Structure formats: C-alpha cells, structure tokens
Amino acid sequence: MPDPVLDLSQTPARLEIHAGPNRYLLEISGVHLWPLLTEPDPPLWVLPVGSEKYPHWAWYCAQAHTWTKARPTGHTGLDINVQLGGKGDVDFHEPIYFVASGNVCQVGQSAGWLGVVVVQHQHDGNPIWFRYAHLDPATINVEAGQYVTPAQTAGLIGAFPNGGDHLHLDAALSPFNWNAYRDPNVQWTDPRKILEAHVAPFIVGQMLRDKDSATT
To answer: N or C: which end of the chain has fewer CB within 10 A?
Structure first.
C-alpha cells in the first residue's frame, strides 16, 4: 500500500461545519487517508468514426442529410469520409463506433449496402434508431438482440462498390428495415443534430466539415 497522503494519527484535524445558524467543530485523529484511484465515467455519447484521430484528420460530410417528406429524393443520413493530404481517400477498414448505448435491432448485408447494423438508442428519453452502413460484413462483431455501449466497435468500413469508402449514418424516430432508403413511412431525422445535442457542437462541426474545407 502506498504512503498515506494525509496522516492524522498524531495531530488531530479540525473541521468547522456550518449548518444553518449553528456551527460545529469536528475533530478527527488516529486516521490515515490514502488516495482512491478511480476510472473516469465513460462518455454517454461519442462520434461514430475518427474520434481517436481528431483533430489531426478532418472528417467531412460527403453528403449531408437532405431528406424531407417534401423532398423525398433527398439523402437520408450522413456520408462521412476523410482525406489525408495528397493521399486521397483513406477510409477503408477505419473503425466504426456506436455513438451511444443501445440494443442491436438488425444486422444485414447486400451488394449495395455492404454490412449494416441498426441500433435503437435513446435521445431525450425517447427511442431513436441509428443505421451504421457500408461496413465490411466480415468485420461486424455484433448480432441482433445484443446490448452495445458507447465507443464499442461495430465493425470496419468496407470497400464501397463505386469507390469513396465511407460511413453512411442514418437516424430515424421510428423503426425501419435495415435496407430501407427514402421510405416516406419512416421518420428520418438529421443525425448531425442528434450528435450535436450530445457531443460538443464545436467538435461535431470540426469533425464534419464541408468537403472543400477539409484539412489535415
């Protein structure tokens, strides 16, 4: 055991306590105090990709969330990508993290989506469904019904069929099938706004810059 940080065995310590109009004197003696080492509380929400490299790499929105019922041809979710100087796209097999705790609802894969994981998280006391898509199916290490925690790895970014490997991140206020896209019956919402509500908006803004402003 390490040396105590405070030795009260010889010299009593006196602590004055104020309680309303009254004051009390507490005398402590014959006591040793040792430091208590504890782990910091884990974060409740994290960024889905690139957190371990920020701010050295600037992630950007290759496509922002533009879908509305009035604009049903808009893009649901965010396409998050990164470029590193003159090396171009460096996203293949970058780790993808669950943004919060929750329950895995579905896991799927197809030629267009690659690997997909849908998780039900909680936002402001209400359920919200996030889809993590374009993962390498062979690296997905969760299954439906599993409980996941913030910063737990969902898998690695896969090789997108048309190049430009990236994470496609959707958020919805209602459940949906893992391969649904632009479904008007789904209450799609902007995942960037959800992230900004839980992670410092400045950090989200810096991580998800516009493509033209991305720097190393």
So the answer is: N
- In this structure, the answer to whether residues 13 and 117 fall within a common structural domain is no
| Domain annotation covers residue 137 | yes
On whether residue 173 sits in a domain, the answer given is: yes
Q: Tell me the residue range of the domain where 188 lies.
A: 59-209
Q: What's the pLDDT at 20? A: 67
Instruction: Work out the angle at residue 142's Cα, subtended by the Cα atoms of residues 131 and 184, and round it to the nearest 5 degrees.
Output: 20
Report phi then psi at 146, rounded to 5: -85, 140
33 compared with 109, residue with greater pLDDT = 109
Q: For the segment 32-51, what is each residue's pLDDT rounded down to a tens digit?
A: 666 666 666 777 998 898 65
**How far is Cα 130 from Cα 132, in angstroms, rounded to an integer?**
7
pTM of the model: 0.77
* Total structural domains within the chain: 2
Q: Are residues 185 and 136 in the same domain?
A: yes
